[in-house]
Amino acid sequence: MVEAQTWATRRMSNPRIMDGSTVSTTSSDQVLDIPATPPGDLRNNAYSTAGSYFSPNILTAGIIASWYLSNIGVLLLNKYLLSYYGYRYPIFLTMLHMISCACYSYVAIKFLRLVPLQHISSRKQFMKIFALSAIFCFSVVCGNTSLRYLPVSFNQAIGATTPFFTAIFAFLITCKKESVEVYCALLPVVFGIVLASNSEPLFHLFGFLVCVGSTAGRALKIRGSRDFVNIRS
């Protein structure tokens, strides 16, 4: 159990809300092993230096643009290495990606102080983070492997079905049913991928299955990051 923190806990995580009123819980029912979300003023302080040179809108646009460019660049570079250059080790390539992400994240948190440093506070929390990390690594490995067999455009088209798998995992994990409108909106996406798969000249069955596995893993990570942290012992 984690000691009381000064930051407010995440919404709907603890304490439990019943009949519109807050009900105090015993120590055995509390779920406080999640690092609290830093308040807005503390998060904004991390951008005070950059904000002195750029307006918040320009800074936000720059961050979003850099995110898109870095993702597109990594995707095209992976495609070049795995398909055209003939690199045959997608798992090792994924390991390099993960090590690079860990190093850059450490520099951004420890030295640049872009976001507050948060510590793992319990073994239970560590296991949840480890599970999400394993799912994410599985998704990245499958995505890199699929690039050996599928075009980038088809790979990204399959990735567009992530909301469909997210809705499925939401039902399987939390038994939460989306509205009929949501399911109806997801059907054209699924049918579009079926049609694209039928007409794709460079279709490869193994690459398609691995890419679907990558998309499902990505959706499970998204769903798990919302729900796993709230699962009681």
UniProtKB/TrEMBL annotation:
Localisation: Membrane
Transmembrane annotation, as ranges: 58-77, 89-109, 129-147, 153-173, 180-196, 202-220
Membrane topology term: Multi-pass membrane protein
Primary site of residence: membrane
Record keyword Transmembrane helix present: yes
Keywords from the UniProt entry: Membrane, Transmembrane, Transmembrane helix
Annotated InterPro entries: EmrE-like, Sugar_P_trans_dom, TPT_transporter
Sugar phosphate transporter domain residues: 62-220
Keyword Zinc appears in the UniProt entry: no
PANTHER family to which the protein is assigned, alphabetical: SOLUTE CARRIER FAMILY 35
Name by which UniProt lists this protein: Sugar phosphate transporter domain-containing protein
